[in-house]
Design brief:
487 residues, alpha+beta, 3 domains, 5-stranded antiparallel sheet
């Protein structure tokens, strides 16, 4: 239902914008001023697309392209090598994926996965996705522009666009200048975009690796985790429950210093039986408030199922090997040392037993140490705790430090790695309308002009390669869409 609403809103917005644009262009009282406005601002509207074109950045591109020309020459030459290697890897990878699909061999992960808001993209992360796409597109086109200036090709202008929900950028290069430069210089221009996308991936990986050190003055790591959110209405929410901003240090004796240990402790509590607590038999007899044993669905309860503070525990003594039951205050009992076996409890002069909570196999009694408050006692399935609480490795040093900043930076970097890497794989494929088409043409002219002087023969080779790349990419996209919607 939510997806249908989103589609209706998007289509309604673009339909309204297109009809309004057509109305203003044809309505005589306003058409002249409106067309003048579009011409002066560089704005244009078409079906499901909005564009902005300008030449104000041309001088900036000129200055950047003339900065350290020898370094830029080496920089974009390395980009050519990367682009050619990436093209070979991308074609082989996509071909192997198609071959394995037709041979009905299992494919663990799709190389190309369409991102559809509301389907496989959470709406809460839509802004990360759109911002990442825009940044990757801008830096991609800036790479083309700087390389073009470096190779004496004029930049006519730069533009941004929004197609349905997908933002992007483009650069307008002089085709006359571009066609007369050598194939190697063309390659430096054509490969600059994917080369910059690859640099974005490396930069995002570096930021993720250095993030604990970059945030060290403001956040503490390696000692505990911090709660970033608690599902409202869950069993651990409320005034006496967990709250965002509190540090978590342990779960029933299992130390928690990072997210991995948090998940590991929850998994351990699911696999293992509920832990007991060492209690002197005299203290058990003193605290026991059992009215009588009640049997319900093969579950023994000695607290009448009504107490909020007491829980039924079982134990056995040396004198009587039969199981005994006691209704004990849960908090007082869990304050005692943890035990798994009876042998874990011993004292020189008094008898101490291991008292286990009487719960079913899926229910666990967990003691969660958090902040400066008394430990929280959780009675339920540990998976509910996992689904109700989100944690982060970065504990703010004071209340003024943003709690969600590390998560935002991490998420943004992960999107940069994913989307910018996908743009590399996509753009280097020798397919019509992609950078790979022009990279392939320039490379064939560079390598085959001396060995195959006939232009038509080279053109035939180029056409066959582009046709193969187009079909290859089309099949992968169809397969990815089929997997997304029907598998």
């Amino acid at each position: 239902m939510l997806t249908t609403t989103w589609i209706a809103l998007v289509l309604g917005f673009w339909s309204t914008l297109y009809l309004l644009d057509a109305f203003l262009k044809t309505k005589k009282p306003w058409s002249r001023n409106y067309l003048s406005f579009l011409e002066n601002t560089g704005l244009s509207v078409s079906i499901c697309q909005f564009r902005w074109y300008t030449s104000v950045f041309n001088r900036t591109f000129l200055r950047l392209g003339q900065w350290r020309p020898q370094f830029l020459r080496l920089w974009f030459t390395v980009g050519v090598l990367f682009g050619l290697v990436a093209m070979l890897i991308s074609v082989c990878m996509l071909t192997l994926l198609i071959v394995n699909t037709f041979r009905q061999q299992p494919v663990e992960q799709q190389v190309l996965t369409p991102v559809m808001p509301g389907i496989n993209l959470p709406t809460s992360q839509l802004w990360y996705y759109l911002l990442t796409l825009l940044i990757c597109g801008i830096l991609h086109e800036v790479g083309h522009a700087i390389a073009a200036v470096r190779e004496q090709v004029r930049v006519n202008g730069f533009g941004l666009f929004m197609f349905v929900l997908y933002p992007g950028a483009y650069v307008d290069l002089s085709s006359e200048h571009l066609n007369v430069v050598s194939p190697l210089r063309q390659l430096r221009i054509y490969c600059a975009g994917v080369w910059h996308n690859f640099i974005i991936v490396l930069a995002a990986i570096l930021v993720l690796f250095l993030l604990p050190y970059l945030l060290m003055p403001f956040y503490t790591t390696g000692q505990s985790v911090v709660i970033t959110s608690v599902v409202e209405g869950s069993s651990v929410s409320g005034p006496r429950g967990l709250a965002a901003g509190e540090p978590l240090t342990s779960i029933s004796g299992c130390q928690v210093t990072n997210q991995e240990e948090w998940y590991s402790c929850i998994s351990q509590s699911i696999r293992e039986q509920s832990l007991g607590h060492c209690m002197p038999t005299a203290l058990i007899q003193e605290l026991d408030s059992s009215p009588k044993l009640i049997y319900s669905k093969n579950i023994i309860d000695c607290c009448n199922f009504t107490s909020d503070t007491h829980l039924c525990f079982l134990y056995h003594t040396r004198a009587s090997p039969n199981q005994k039951y006691a209704c004990l205050p849960a908090r007082t009992t869990t304050d005692r040392p943890v035990c798994k076996l009876q042998t874990d409890c011993h004292a020189p002069k008094i008898e101490i037993v291991c008292a286990y909570p009487m719960v079913d196999n899926s229910t666990k009694l967990l003691r969660i140490n958090h902040g400066r408050k008394p430990p929280l006692l959780f009675l339920g399935h540990p998976l509910d705790l996992h689904l109700s609480v989100s944690v982060s490795n970065y504990v703010p040093n004071n209340s003024y430090v943003p709690l969600h900043l590390p998560y935002m930076v991490e998420t943004f970097c992960k999107y940069l790695i994913s989307l910018s890497g996908a743009l590399v794989i996509l753009n280097v494929v020798p397919c019509y309308a992609l950078d790979g088409q022009f990279i392939c043409h320039a490379f064939l002219e560079l390598t085959l002009r001396s060995t195959i002087p006939d232009r038509e023969t080279r053109g035939l080779i180029y056409t066959l390669i582009i046709l193969y790349g187009t079909i290859l990419l089309g099949l992968n996209v169809i397969m990815a869409m089929w997997t997304l919607f029907f598998v």
